[in-house]
Amino acid sequence: MTATGLRRFREPRQPDVTRCEMCGEPLGEEHGHVVDVESRALLCTCRACRLLFTHDVGARHRAMPDRYLHAPSFRLTEADWEELQIPVRMAFFFHNSTLGRTVALYPSPAGATESLLPTETWERVLAANPALAVVQPDVEALLVDRRPGGGSACHLVPISACYELVGLVRLHWKGFDGGREAWEAIDGFFAELRRRSRVVPDPDPGGKTPDPGGEGGATGPRGEPPDLGAEAPATGADGETPAADSEGEDDGR
Q1: CA distance 49 to 58
Q2: Of 106, 141, 164, 231, which is most buried, counting CB atoms within 10 Å of its CB?
Q3: Which of 79, 70, 69, 165 minimizes the C-alpha distance to 118?
């Protein structure tokens, strides 16, 4: 072995650096993501590469927005939820352009598990919540959380946030009911979503208006309609690149 070859054993090992999965440039802890619509993979990207795909609707790669919206009074009846046939209290819904339909997935100890979605029921739910119909296909999702005490909340989030929740469940879930550690992680996840989200106002002025400072955890200007077409201020990216395919069976609640 040459002196040059031996020198590498004497030099300190270079720290692992996350790099753009398109151009190879080093990335910081906060960086953007691009969705491969065909493979359902999330790619960590630098700002320049992400900007290349912000307007290519219908292309294979699409930049993932970073807006977070929160609808504390999401209109979803008990009958709707039963018809959707989601066996746990949380699920996320997004339009898969490759399949040409909306899919429903829920977190489970085995990963993201797909539930057969009754299309007519889901369209009825969307019609009752028109402010959330702005969700972008492939890159954003509606994450619905059925509260244990009744009622539902919905978050419009980047699709990566849903897989972050899937990862938490898979990492912490123990036994049949998940255990305290898993539910603390799940509650913390939703608390963080509420903290960074803008509130979608209740569309029914005669109904019960959520308190932005109350249980819903809202942080947006009270009573001020959010600009649903714009992205929220930059948020921390998790840097993970989870596969978006469903798998496994669920025994969660």
Answers
A1: 17
A2: 141
A3: 79
